[in-house]
Amino acid sequence: MPTSFLEIIELPDGRIALRRAEDEETLVTLEFSGEAKSFLQGYHVEVAKAMLNVGVQMAGRLAEGDFERDEDGPRVLH
């Protein structure tokens, strides 16, 4: 992905999106259920920002080759 400024926005339908500042197309979209929003007591935007920030950092590490993945075992996502 080319280097550009990224912005985190809240879409009219309440989803949180990551996009390039100069583009309308979203790169990543997060959607919280009503139950999750209630549990987070209105702080779902802050949680989304943290999630997207970590994701962008991880993408940077991958792009720089600074991440090793064990290809032998099953991938456990949690």
Q: In terms of structural class, how would the helical and strand content be classed?
A: alpha+beta
Main sheet overview: 3 strands, antiparallel
Roughly what fraction of the amino acids lie in strands? 15-25%
Spatial strand order of the main sheet: 1-2-3
Number of helices: 2
| Alpha carbon gyration radius | 15 Å
Tally of structural domains: 1
What spatial form do the alpha-carbon principal axes imply? flat
| Beta-strand segment tally | 3
How far do the termini sit from each other? 26 Å
Name the helicity range.
Answer: 25-40%
Protein name: ABC transporter ATP-binding protein
Organism: Zestomonas insulae
Could you explain how this protein is built, in words?
- It comes from Zestomonas insulae.
- This is ABC transporter ATP-binding protein.
- There is one protein chain.
- With 78 residues, this protein is an alpha+beta fold.
- The protein has one domain.
- Helices cover 33% and strands 19% of the residues.
- The protein has 2 helices and 3 strands; from the N terminus they run βββαα.
- It has a 3-stranded antiparallel sheet, covered by helices on one side.
- The radius of gyration is 15 Å and the shape is flat.
- The two termini are 26 Å apart.
- The mean pLDDT is 87.
